[in-house]
Amino acid sequence: MNDKGIRKNIEKIILKKKFENVAVKVENKVVYLTGKVNSYDAFLDLGLRIGKKKNVEGVVNNLEYPNKERKEKKKGSASKIGKADVVIVGGGVIGSSIARELSKYKLRVILVEKASDVACGTTKANNAMVHTGIGENMGTLKQKLCVKGQQMFEKISDELNVPYKQNGMWIITTKDSLAKMKLPSFISDFIAKRIIPMIVLRRGKKLGITMNLTKRRELLKREPNITKKVLAGIYSPTYGITCPYLFTIALAENAMENGVEVMLNTEVVDIVTKESKVESVVTTKGIIDANFVINAAGLYTDEIAGMAGAREYTIHPKKGATLIFDKKANEYINHSMSMLRFPRTKHYKGGGAMTTIDGNIQWGPTISETPDKEDTTVTTEDIEKMFESYSPLLEDFPEKLVITYFSGLRACTFTEDFIIKSSKKIKGFVHAAGIQSPGLTAAPAIAEMTISLLKNEGLKLEAKNNFDPYNKKKIVTRDLSNEEKKKLIEKNPQYGEIVCRCEQVTKGEVVDAIHSKIPALSIDAIKRRTRAGMGRCQGGFCLPNIVKILAQETDIPIEKILKNEGGSDLFIGRAKCLLEDKYDEN
Ligand SMILES: Cc1cc2nc3c(=O)[nH]c(=O)nc-3n(C[C@H](O)[C@H](O)[C@H](O)COP(=O)(O)OP(=O)(O)OC[C@H]3O[C@@H](n4cnc5c(N)ncnc54)[C@H](O)[C@@H]3O)c2cc1C
Question: Which residue puts its alpha carbon closest to atom 15 of ligand 1?
Fold first, then answer.
């Protein structure tokens, strides 16, 4: 169908749904909406309806709605940084995977990240599952790259020396799976016990995923704490778990070892084009001339594309909250598990009770729309939703052992699939956008696909003969035997000094993190690398220790140490200064 046909279809929707002040334009199968609607819900509703239409490749939703946030354009620095072959915008798992892939070639590659560390966006706030692809809609790019990414994950994790485990996953149906359909119980039980498993197994076969149907009795033997209402269980042994921040930090550090330059605390504020071709990237630290730009800015990909005049989609964030339980609860389940429910809710995105690579259990995630790209709050409603969803799966689970919760934002487009393609408007500009779940799993495959797009765009790829795929193993004292610990402490007594009791982290590991290739210069950056503060007391014991070490090892004064990014101050000043009235409230 051509643009004219698409436009006619969209106009029908607009008329039927009585959107009076909306104008539509279609260009290269991308729908551009302008005008006004009376709420954010209406903005979403129309965008999603259009995004679902066949042949629509993107929806740019410029509709105004009450209280829409306006952003002031930030100023860049005019100083010249030099010329790069490729600039990558964003140091999440996608930007870092692409950086590592490009570091295999003789190129000058610069990765620009606005935060003080990599993995600070959505990449730090997900469930860390290395999915098989069974949960994705058949035939989508998401599914294709998820299946491929999962196959690549083990090798890359081995090379980078980061933890990865195929811990398996149960896909479960219970007597409640079809409760909302209000069918006679013998019919709903039959569908849940026989039909759904058969469909799941058939799908798995098509995708080449190993899956085994397990009888109820056997399942209850293997997972004794699961609800007795269970009807069927399909076990998927290749389901994996990773650590998303360690994985991303390792990717970025390996890319750096192989020549990629990583600029942290550097925000991209403009992209200059000439005759519809990328010319330079303007950042808060200066201008980088570049032939190619890869847009891997997560939630902000639409805004970065807009800077280049290549806006071909709009991102609408979907929040997902997760609960983390104390390790005391970790024997409650042996494998991750997800309960199927039908009909799927409006914003359904699977979820379940899952094990983490560090031995905690997590419940989640929820799913809800939010207009705010920085809204990572967790509300009482989110928490209630999680208990409501997952308690029926594990009825006697020790729920009181929750130690923390967090939320992350999915960077969704209205077409609900990944958008990985060269811009049709601007030559040299490549989108890696709409990377919602399973973006972590798909990251290695997304990187490969991006490189082939760059090649098609004319980037010359000459392989380096000295590319080193390996990262050195970092010391994690809690994983060592007593003999190994003894030897290590003899060489460096700091590895014998426990600074985080819950996670058994030593001073030596914190010092290593501070002086690593990408230095950890905030409390959270150290936490992501060492787990100090991730245990039961959530930093109650170790925070002062970490602050002290950070101040000793760097030139950051104690009162300037941040929890995370700018604005997350831990201190208001030195106590003595306050007493001496030297403290200026402003
Ligand atoms: C609740 C939740 C659970 C999930 N669970 C899973 C899971 O179990 N398995 C799975 O495979 N996937 C999962 N995902 C999806 C996965 O987390 C994402 O797909 C992935 O992290 C996206 O990575 P990214 O690099 O595209 O984005 P990000 O990590 O957000 O990285 C983008 C980066 O761009 C930077 N940036 C933005 N604007 C600029 C600018 N102007 N200048 C410079 N830098 C900029 C940001 O600071 C950020 O660091 C989950 C997501 C959520 C929200």
Answer: 437
| Range 80-124+244-314+415-456 classified under CATH 2.60.40.10 | no
93 ligand 1 Cβ < 6 A = yes
Distance 411 CA to ligand 1 centre (A): 7
Of 372, 411, 418, 433, nearest to 95 by C-alpha is 433
For the segment(s) 169-237+317-412, the CATH number from 3.30.70.640, 2.40.50.180, 3.30.9.10, 2.60.120.200 is 3.30.9.10
The rounded Å distance from CA 511 to ligand 1 centre is 27
The answer on pLDDT for 140 being more than 50 is yes
Task: Tell me if 121 sits within 8 A of 93, measured CB to CB.
Answer: no
Per-domain boundaries in the chain: 3-61, 80-124+244-314+415-456, 169-237+317-412, 477-579
- pLDDT confidence of 579, banded at 50, 70, 90? confident
The Cα 433–Cα 445 span in angstroms is 14
Residue 261 in tokens: 């330059």
Tell which CATH classification among 1.20.120, 3.40.1350, 1.10.540, 3.30.1340 matches the domain 3-61. 3.30.1340
Cβ proximity of 430 and 422 under 8 Å: yes
Specify the DSSP element, H or E, that contains 316.
strand 316-325
Question: What is the Å distance from ligand 1's center to 38 Cα?
Answer: 30
Whether residue 204 has its Cβ less than 6 Å from ligand 1: no
Name the amino acid, one letter, at 584: D
pLDDT digits (tens, 9 = 90+) for 393-421: 998 999 999 999 999 999 999 999 999 99
Whole-prediction pTM value? 0.96
Instruction: Indicate whether residue 112 lines ligand 1 (CB < 6 A).
Output: yes
